[in-house]
Automatic annotation (TrEMBL):
The lineage of its organism: Bacteria, Bacillati, Bacillota, Bacilli, Bacillales. This is ABC transporter. One of its GO terms (molecular function) is transmembrane transporter activity. Keywords: ATP-binding, Nucleotide-binding, Transport. The keyword Transport applies.
Length: 223
């Protein structure tokens, strides 16, 4: 089992506490594709952030690859994030002042041999048909090119899990299909994909589909 959450809850404290996740239990095997649907504010991003090691559970437990995240130190959690997880977002989150190649390398820059890192980044960008755009800045790219750069950055360190938060929300149909195709082929090679979306057309029917409502997670039957 790659991901195992047992009765996990997240409560954001404030004047009125928000129960963003309520007692959720879910297990995901390595190489699965998980679709996550739900209305705005239902807890989708919080769930990705719990799995990504960005938000800690208030109650319950989460283990990734049999490693318990609930009790590890902040440094260990940071290392987990850096090694095991890749993230892509609707708004790409590229650095405007860096080129495509630099954007892909920057998260791993402090931790890896620079030459090897650059070779790996060039190689992945080539696979994603971005090799002619290595020196472009993000504002010179189309939305699809920006997302392909973001995918290259998310998979450069060969994570176990890629967390996709509305990854095609800003894209037209052709670019959306292209990005989904890339994610599906990564999944077929063994990468575990969790995809949050509002868009029913983005759902991968070969995956399992969950709905979150008010922090409650439920698996849909009949795929
Ligand atoms: N850092 C935070 N502090 C306080 N409340 C938060 C925080 N992050 C999220 N929330 C609240 O937790 C609930 C779940 O938020 P979350 O972002 O997970 O929803 P979502 O399903 O991803 O929504 P959307 O589809 O609009 O992005 C919401 O009520 C939100 O306002």
């Amino acid at each position: 089992m790659l991901i195992n959450i047992n009765k996990g809850s997240v409560i954001f404290q404030g004047i009125d506490p928000v129960f963003a996740l309520k007692d959720i239990t879910v297990s995901v095997n390595r190489g699965e594709w998980i679709n996550i649907l739900g209305p705005s504010g239902s807890g989708k991003t919080t769930l990705l952030n719990v799995i990504g090691g960005i938000v800690r559970l208030g109650n319950g437990t989460i283990s990734i690859d049999n490693k318990e995240l609930t009790s590890i130190t902040d440094e260990e959690l940071q290392e987990y994030r850096r090694n095991k997880v890749g993230y892509i977002f609707q708004d790409y989150r590229l650095f405007d002042q860096f080129t495509v190649l630099e954007n892909v390398m920057v998260p791993q820059w402090p931790y890896q041999n620079k030459r090897e890192l650059e070779i790996a980044a060039r190689n992945i960008l080539k696979q994603l048909q971005m090799d002619r755009r290595l020196d472009s800045l993000p504002n010179e790219l189309s939305g699809g090119e920006k997302q392909r750069t973001a995918i290259a950055r998310a998979i450069l360190h060969q994570p176990d899990i890629i967390l996709c938060d509305e990854p095609t929300g800003n894209l037209d149909k052709d670019n959306r299909d292209n990005i989904l195709q890339i994610l599906r082929s990564l999944n077929e090679k063994g990468l575990t994909v969790l995809l949050v979306t509002h868009d029913l057309e983005v759902i991968n029917p070969k995956g399992r589909t969950f709905i979150i409502r008010d922090g409650n997670l439920q698996e849909m039957n009949g795929k």
